[in-house]
Design brief:
The chain is an all-alpha fold. The protein contains two helices and no strands.
């Protein structure tokens, strides 16, 4: 799996980390970021489909 490096504001990182760990939804910060990216891409696919900009391929 490729590794990605990015700059992120401290507040955004802290907000994500609040959902990570034993009492959070995600097992790691990387898991939270991957899940957020997948959800965002699904949402963008839905928007594109509504506007006729997607032909079913991903």
């Amino acid at each position: 799996m490729p590794k990605v490096s990015l700059d992120m504001p401290d507040q955004l990182k802290a907000d994500l980390e609040a959902h990570v760990g034993d009492h959070g939804k995600f097992v790691s910060l990387a898991d939270a970021i991957r899940t957020a990216c997948r959800k965002m891409l699904d949402h963008l696919d839905d928007v594109d489909a509504r506007h006729g900009r997607i032909g079913g391929e991903r």
